[in-house]
């Protein structure tokens, strides 16, 4: 829960959405980062008037992480900066539509408007508009998730990497 992951902006967006929508829940995952002590994180979630629908569940690993992805309807990653985040690939592998900030190589994985929605980093209003758009587009979530799963399988899976390396080696041996 490092501030660079955008959790503070996402928390604010979650509170705004919960104030107008009773059927939405937000679950935050991640260990304690260097920029925010655990006590501050716990107090922020506990103090929310929507603490029954906005929860921090901490870091998850292995099967717990898979179960977390399987329980999601929509994946949000509002990072301020990233290179090529594995969490995006994991969400794609689990057939989830994605809301993310357009940082690093995120747009190489998530096609804006097709596999999810991209917004500006460090911009709470942009994130709010994007999450609201995603929530208004629930009819498209299954198709977006399927597209993400297909793109993951074709471009980012172990088999895809294996085929790419085999081609490189084959081309070098010519």
From TrEMBL:
Question: Gene3D superfamilies from the entry?
Answer: Glycogen Phosphorylase B
Which Pfam families does UniProt cross-reference here? Answer: Glyco_trans_1_4 (PF13692)
Q: What's the source species for this entry? A: Persicirhabdus sediminis
PANTHER family in the record: GLYCOSYLTRANSFERASE (PTHR12526)
Highest rank taxon of the organism? Bacteria
Q: Tell me what this protein is called.
A: Glycosyltransferase
Where is the organism placed in the taxonomic lineage, from the top? Bacteria, Pseudomonadati, Verrucomicrobiota, Verrucomicrobiia, Verrucomicrobiales
